[in-house]
Design brief:
The protein is an alpha+beta fold and 697 residues long. It contains 24 helices and 17 strands. Strands 9, 10, 11, 12, 13, 14, 15, 16 and 17 form a 9-stranded mixed beta sheet that branches. Strands 1, 2, 5, 6, 7 and 8 form a 6-stranded mixed beta sheet that branches. The longest helix is centred in the last third of the chain and has 54 residues. It is globular and about 100 Å long. Bound molecules: adenosine-5'-diphosphate and magnesium ion. Adenosine-5'-diphosphate (ADP) binds next to strand 9, strand 11 and strand 14.
Length: 697
């Protein structure tokens, strides 16, 4: 068997491949582009394209594609072959710098939220040279950003790249204040997303239209065993799953994805994969590749990988923990408490920037995780509550308290502490938090945002985080750059920031009702329970100002995104409604009817022989009343879906769908689940929760 170190990254045109295959000058200019965001010369692009093509052809490629991330949330590609005719019926394999840096897919079939009406249908994709090209299915994939001809972002990657630039600019201003001669060239955000998923037998999946069309089960009676014994979390991995994980790791490693940790999660059939963190745009690309690869490898093992946030009612859903920090190109993590007072002061300022950002833009963070699927998780005592707060741990909180009140943190160190920030005590480095109820936790040298849904792209939350923190840093730099005395201003700034934003810090149990009351009633924090509650905040004046100030979105782009997010919500639930109605009419009602007939026939036969038939009579009556409830429920669902079709305003529609259709789906499910628990297995046409959750052996 080949050594991992030998094949790692063999399908990625990474630094090693570049070094090997590019003339030294070309390699150097490309490196400059990658490391320092310098513009790429077309001559350099031509040489890179040619080298990439030769590399790809040697590995069996015939095609290339610009690989991008439109607003659908999944990746898109349009394949072109390398062939170029040279006359006499002959061809050569060609790939130019122009083809590498720019592509022109037809933009008209992707969601544009009104941008389509105002702009041309055509869009273009632009190479992101900081994310390595890779090979998938004999195709050279070039990670790109996707924009309209007017330059409007039509994808999830462009804003992320813009936000990385914003935080870089502002963080550099701060670093230069601490050290005018700093050798740091840029600051990037690092991200490590932990990905949860379910694995179920393909054979069972194929029999459930709800899983096929909506990604989740729309009904399903509670199995005799769920997760109550808590025996799955970190439990021994079944051999079939182990084989899947081994193949998945291998595929990801070939692509240069640092898949690191694999374990069972809390629910039966639930697992997690965590990669080693990397810079935000690459982490986002890699996470998309990971999700795609999970589904592909699962198929090869006769399994299906479910990435939906809540595939099973009553069973913990799946999320994605987005670990985030800021680091310099020289490898210094700006969220690591330092060894010296000077480093600590800098750490505290960056920490305060995050605290301020999360408090001021809690709505945007909530929105970055708002989808129809994730609404089933947030606030359901299995994922963080819908209220955003920050967990800092007792020690760091105590230090911030001391700074705010200008009191001593530790009496033993009183003498040193008088100057506050300047002489902050050394902080414990392994501040690993085990408070799983916090949506936003400081875990020693990074923050972990735990709201994101398992199927979401992590670009949205990182775009918000980067931009909001950039804004805090911008305000800090504006003050500090003109300060008469840097250290005095710094102390005041940190103290004022803590005072103003400490309401967002909470170290207790996020699931506690008392916390939700305190958060909303005393602290004035937002509790945006569902997607329609959250989304309207997107377009508030402060949020438009934030994104436009930092050139992450213009107002038109924001309006279009708002529409897309709302439409997405309503469409998702409409599909669920249509699927549920279909399954009720074609599978569930016929099953109940057939079974009822058998019961009635048996009852009649018994009675004709003078044998009591109380059981049959009682069951038949129960099934009849359930049938009536199901028919009434599905009729109500259809009526509301029809009414919804008449509502044209996207916001009104989303609220109507939430209040009526979502409720109808939940009510209908109750009767269906009860029926499932009564109908004999041989009549029930769908795999049960036991089949789905315990079917992989
Ligand atoms: P857990 O949260 O399960 O205890 P860890 O905290 O060790 O696991 O790591 C979770 C994820 O956080 C991993 O993907 C890891 O690479 C990532 N991570 C670790 N350090 C950083 C950092 N400085 N910035 C961003 N992500 C990080
Ligand atoms: Mg974690």
């Amino acid at each position: 068997m080949a050594l991992v170190s030998e094949y790692f990254g063999c399908l990625s045109f990474d630094d090693t491949a570049m070094k090997q295959r590019l003339p030294r000058d070309t390699y150097r200019s490309l490196k400059k582009t990658i490391d320092e965001n310098k513009e790429l010369d077309i001559n350099v692009a031509n040489i890179v394209a040619n080298a990439m093509k030769d590399w790809a052809i040697e590995k069996g490629c015939t095609h290339f594609t610009h690989w991008f991330q439109p607003m659908t949330g999944v990746t898109a590609e349009k394949h072109d072959s390398f062939i170029s005719p040279i006359g006499d019926g002959k061809i050569i394999m060609e790939f130019s710098g122009k083809e590498l840096v720019r592509g022109e897919p037809d933009a008209s079939s992707f969601p544009s939220g009104g941008l389509r009406a105002t702009f041309e249908d055509r869009g273009y994709t632009a190479w992101d040279p900081t994310s390595y090209a890779f090979i998938k299915d004999n195709t050279l994939c070039i990670p790109t950003a996707f924009c309209s001809y007017g330059g409007e972002a039509l994808d999830k990657k462009t804003p992320l790249l813009r936000s990385m630039k914003a935080i870089d600019t502002q963080a550099m201003r701060i670093l230069r204040l601490f050290d005018p001669h700093t050798n740091v060239a840029c600051v990037r955000t690092s991200v490590g997303p932990e990905q949860e998923y379910f694995l179920i037998p393909r054979e069972m999946y194929d029999k459930r239209k709800d899983l096929i069309y909506t990604g989740r089960t729309l009904f399903g009676a509670k199995p005799p065993k769920g997760q109550e014994l808590e025996d799955h979390y970190f439990g021994a991995i079944k051999s079939k799953v182990k084989e899947f994980m081994r193949d998945l790791d291998e595929e990801l490693w070939k692509l240069g994805v640092h898949a690191k940790t694999e374990h069972n999660e809390g629910a039966p059939a639930q697992h997690e994969l965590a990669p080693i963190f990397t810079q935000a745009n690459i982490a986002t690309d890699h996470n998309q590749m990971t999700m795609e690869m999970m589904q592909k490898v699962a198929k090869q093992h006769d399994l299906v990988c479910l990435l939906h946030e809540k595939p099973f009612g009553g069973i913990t859903g799946s999320g994605k923990h987005n670990n985030w920090s800021m680091a310099t190109n020289t490898g210094v993590n700006l969220l690591t408490p330092g060894e010296t007072p000077y480093e600590n002061a800098q750490f505290l300022l960056f920490l305060c920037a995050v605290i301020k950002a999360v408090d001021e833009y809690q709505d945007l963070l909530r929105i970055s995780a708002a989808t129809a699927g994730n609404d089933h998780r947030l606030g359901a005592n299995e994922a963080p509550p819908a209220v955003i707060s920050i967990f800092l741990g007792d020690e760091l909180s105590a230090i911030l308290d001391a700074l705010e009140t200008e009191t001593h943190y530790d009496p033993k160190e009183a003498a040193q502490l008088q100057l506050g920030v300047d002489t902050l005590p050394r902080l414990p480095k392994d501040n690993t938090d085990r408070n799983r109820t916090s949506p936003f936790a400081f875990t020693g040298n990074k923050f972990e945002f735990r709201m994101v849904g398992s199927s979401n792209s992590i670009s949205s939350c990182n775009t918000v985080l980067n931009t909001a923190v950039a804004e805090s840093l911008r305000q800090f730099a504006d003050i500090l750059e003109v300060a008469e005395d840097f250290h005095t201003s710094l102390n005041t700034l940190i103290r004022d920031t803590i005072k103003e934003h400490k309401r967002i810090i909470f170290n207790g149990n996020g699931y506690d009702d008392a916390w939700i009351r305190e958060a909303t009633e005393v602290r004035g924090l937002l509790n945006l329970k569902t997607t329609p509650d959250a989304l309207p905040y997107y377009l508030s004046a402060k949020n438009i100002r934030l994104f436009t100030t930092h050139n992450v979105y213009n107002e038109t782009e924001m309006r279009s995104r708002y529409e897309i997010m709302l439409e997405n919500y309503s469409k998702t639930i409409n599909i669920e409604a249509a699927t549920m109605a279909d399954m009720v009419y074609k599978g569930i009602l016929p099953a109940i009817t057939s079974y009822s007939r058998e019961i009635c026939d048996t009852g009649l036969s018994k009675k004709s022989l003078g044998i009591p038939a109380d059981y049959e009579t009682g069951l038949a009556q129960k099934l009849t009343s359930l049938t009536e409830a199901i028919v009434a429920g599905v009729t109500r669902l259809e009526t509301h879906t029809r009414e919804a079709a008449q509502i044209h305003d996207v916001t009104d529609l989303a609220f109507f769908i939430r209040d009526k259709v979502v409720t109808d789906l939940e009510t209908l499910r109750l009767s269906v689940d009860e029926a499932e628990s009564l109908v004999a297995s041989k009549y029930w046409p769908y795999p049960t929760y036991s089949d789905l959750l315990f079917g992989v052996r």
